[in-house]
Amino acid sequence: MKKLAKNTELANACFVSPAGEGIFEVAGKGTQYIVDLKVKSCTCRRWDLSGIPYSHAIACMREDRIAPEDMVHSCYSIESFYKDYGNIIVPCHDKKEWHKMNGRPIEPPLYVKKVGRPPKNRRKQPYEAELKKGGKKMSFIVDTVENLDTTKLVVVMLKQAYHQLRRLGKR
Ligand SMILES: [Zn+2]
pLDDT grade, residue 61 (50/70/90)? Predict the structure, then answer.
């Protein structure tokens, strides 16, 4: 497992002092943690939350010669996977073989016309509104663009070029 390998590597930076009965004090990156191998817990809570031993615990397992793979939660096992996906979806009979239930026919909901004139302009994206407000600087656009997909990026750049050309034409 990729995550376990990464945590194993991080375990090299942990200093372990055994307290006995599977309990350890672990120092890593200026903070101290308490690991209890018997209840599969560490005070940093990473192991408790993910079920995958974090570096603190792996460092302790080395001390006790326990393989970290054996301490991973059983929900990650192949057996659990097969159990979860073991059920089948029973195939459906042909429509001709369906029984008539004589229930109420299912109709689409009635259309209710909304009050007022429907809006003519589409709602602007937040970044478009910003652009219109005060000709934001390029850095803002770059920041925004990092969160957009390519299509939107092209639209933004075309708009900019268009306004630039108009400005030049007015001079
Ligand atoms: Zn920890």
Answer: very high
**pLDDT grade for 169, boundaries at 50, 70 and 90:** confident
Task: Let me know: does 68 contact 37? Beta carbons within 8 Å.
Answer: no
Decide: helix, strand or coil at residue 39.
Answer: coil
Q: How much distance in Å is there from the Cα of 57 to the middle of ligand 1?
A: 6
- C-alpha 165 – ligand 1 centre gap (Å): 59
Return phi, psi of residue 98, to 5°: -70, 145
Instruction: Tell me, in angstroms, the distance from the centre of ligand 1 to residue 4's CA.
Output: 13
Residue type present at position 126: P
Which residues, at least 6 apart from 88, have a Cβ–Cβ distance to it below 8 Å? none
Residues 6+ apart with CB under 8 A from 53: 4, 7, 40, 47, 61, 68, 71, 72
Which single residue is written with the structure tokens 């003519």?
120
Confidence at 71, pLDDT banded by 50, 70, 90: very high
Cα 81 to middle of ligand 1, angstroms: 27
Q: Taking ligand 1, which is a single-atom ion, which protein residues have CB atoms under 5 Å away?
A: 33, 42, 44, 54, 56
